[in-house]
Amino acid sequence: DPLFIVSSEKDHAQANLQATLVRNKLRKVPRFRTMFSNLIHYPRYSLNWDKSDPVPPFISREWKGYEEQRKEALRQLAASDPSFQMPKEVYEDPEVTGKNRYKYFERPFFPFCKQIPFTIAYSPFRAEPYTFPPASTKYPPIPSKCAVGTQTDYRDSEVQTDPYSPEYVVCQDSVPELLTLATLTWGRGLPAGQAEVEMIERAREKRTWEATLPLLTDTTQYEKRRRMMSAMERKEWAFREQEIQKLQDIRLEVLKQLLKKREENQNEVNMKNLNAQWSKLQEAKEAKVAKIQRAHVSEKEEWRK
Q1: Which residue of 62, 65, 111, 299 lies most exposed, with the fewest beta carbons within 10 A?
Q2: Which part of the chain is the CFAP91 domain (predicted)?
Q3: Contacts by 272-276 with C-beta closer than 8 Å and gap 24+?
Q4: Quick check: 29 and 39 in contact, CB under 8 A?
Q5: Angle, alpha carbons 255-261-265 (nearest 5°)
């Protein structure tokens, strides 16, 4: 077609200008005080520019002809000059495995199956028995059952509350340290934090101290044993007092924050009440001033008559 014409930069600028100056973006915003006024100097509404844009902000409004002209010039230069190397076009990552993964999936299409008339009957299909190949010894056989531990390792869902703990056997004349932590369970001490680590360290110190105590059968060391136990008891009570003091400090801090928040809320409510009262008095004042002005104007007109 010799009369084929495409839009140019001038047409693009003209379309942008028309879209900017369109009157549909002007919104009539009524004025509350002069909503029912018919006077010119007291308009009922004002025209405001609507800031909402139907075009998303990520869409470029620039003319795309420059980029096409640049690519065409580079193609002509590459065709005329063999030494010229075309720059490689860098395409944006489609993110197939990321946020754009849903774009590469589609619901399967099931064609409509026509119903077979009752007058048509097909011959029955008889499948030949399948012959299994001989078992190969290259790969180990897959067990038909799974243990509880295997199910826990390969479970995908999160319906299980506590992790699986395998059975154990304790050697004779041995007390593993791990068994002393049997009271710690998942969600109640596990995963271990700073408090749990400090508790474990105190338990180790206490076991070391118990190993240094004199035997009960030794009557000569009875007084020493009593003094050591008394000192340990005082130490335990001092530690408990420190823990109680820490809890009291935390509760006191929480109480201070709650009181501060309540005071801020009360101040905010008082400020709102004061603002509402001030607005009410201001409206009453303006109403009185307007009434006085109207009376003054009416008296002035009567005097002129």
Answers
A1: 111
A2: 150-298
A3: none
A4: no
A5: 145
Domain that holds residue 32: 9-82
Tens of pLDDT, residue by residue over 266-297, are 999 999 999 999 999 999 999 999 999 988 88
CA atoms within 13 A on the CB side of 3: 0
Closest to 25 measured CA to CA, from 2, 55, 3, 5: 55
Q: What is the pTM of this model?
A: 0.35
The identity of residue 17, as a single letter, is L
On whether residue 265 sits in a domain, the answer given is yes
Angular region, 187: left φ>0, alpha ψ -120 to 50, beta rest: left
Closest listed residue to residue 103, CA positions, set 95, 111, 93: 95
Greatest Cα pair distance, the chain, in angstroms, is 129
Q: Is the distance from CB of 242 to CB of 253 less than 8 angstroms?
A: no
Specify if 17 maps to a domain: yes
**Tell me: the pLDDT tens digits for 129-183?**
767 666 555 556 666 665 655 555 555 555 555 666 777 777 777 777 777 777 7
